[in-house]
Amino acid sequence: MKFFTIGVYNSTEQEYFKKLTDNNIDTFCDIRQRRGVRGSQYAFVNSNRLQARLNELDIKYGHIIDLAPTTDIRELQKEVDNQQGELKRDRNKLGQVFTIAYKDRILSKFDFESFIDKLDEVGANKVVLFCVEEKPEACHRSIVTDKLEKLGYDITHL
User: N or C: which end of the chain has fewer CB within 10 A?
Assistant: First the structure.
């Protein structure tokens, strides 16, 4: 099993789905808390439209809410972004306070063995983890993939 990550900011709908098909992604793990993006530019990753398109592409979809940062944790990052005058869409990396809180409150409680078992059960081979930020370092998916790398899995950021 190989893992990939993908964000949506600064991608068109065509570019976004091309990345998935070019890399033969067969399983899509949505690790967002809220499965929508404001505005029409990224409406194609709002849950219902996204799932319909993935179904057309024969890509399995799962919402892995247990990997999503809570509202409280997201607020910690929002404070850092505000202090730095940075928009979420332009962020280059996560703040230390977010990283510590996410690792402590989410990652430490997540059952990776069960997650991998469930992926095996559905025949997952090429799995993508999705959240909205363009750069993985600006998103909690980089924290998740750091853990997966420690467990011996290869990671490719799309």
Answer: N
